[in-house]
Records
---
Amino acid sequence: MLVINLGHPLTDAQRAQIVTMSGQQIEREIFSKVQFDPELSFSVQSRELVEQIGLGPQDWQQTPLLINPPTLNFIAITVLAELHGRMGYFPPVLRLRQVPNSLPPAFEVAEIINLQEVRDSSRKLR
């Protein structure tokens, strides 16, 4: 599986949690630092961010992907819309949570959210 990391760098412990939860090995991780200019269009900046990841149309549609989304909500949802357009479905995403009472603050993988499954089950409520 290919992890596209648009959030904070992952630790070895977090990578091990991903492998355990997903049942898949991480073949590669692409880390892209996300820094948007709040004065410019987030749609345009999201497209540029996804472009610099360097995957082609076939890769977006056929490679098993896991996304660690950006931490700012408006960037995350705009990037997810861009990814959905390229992939044809919503990718699974990581949800990290702070480990209680950790000093300095440490984070663990809380879950892998299957966004496409969430979307598909919601369609039944229309």
---
Amino acid sequence: MQDWHCLTESNMKHLYYSVAQTITHHAVTGCNMSTGDLLGSGTISSTEESGYGSMLELCWKGTKPIPMPDGTERKFLKDGDEVNLQGVAKGNGYTIGFGNCRVKF
């Protein structure tokens, strides 16, 4: 039996602001960038329901339960749920990313 279920999968092409725009906005507001600084993208959603970027979007503010393979439904995370994030970026001749990043509630 499968012990996981993919809820969403998106792509950075759906970002509202590009990475370059995010860095520019950060820098022009007077906050200097330094080596090692990290910038987060926030939620990355998609134009399709299957790529919505948060539980709030996926279940449409709790009005549309998400069916799980075991027959249960989720509107929000419950105690005992485990979330696993993975990310990968591919470019011209390179691939970079991170593997399993898990948390259990």
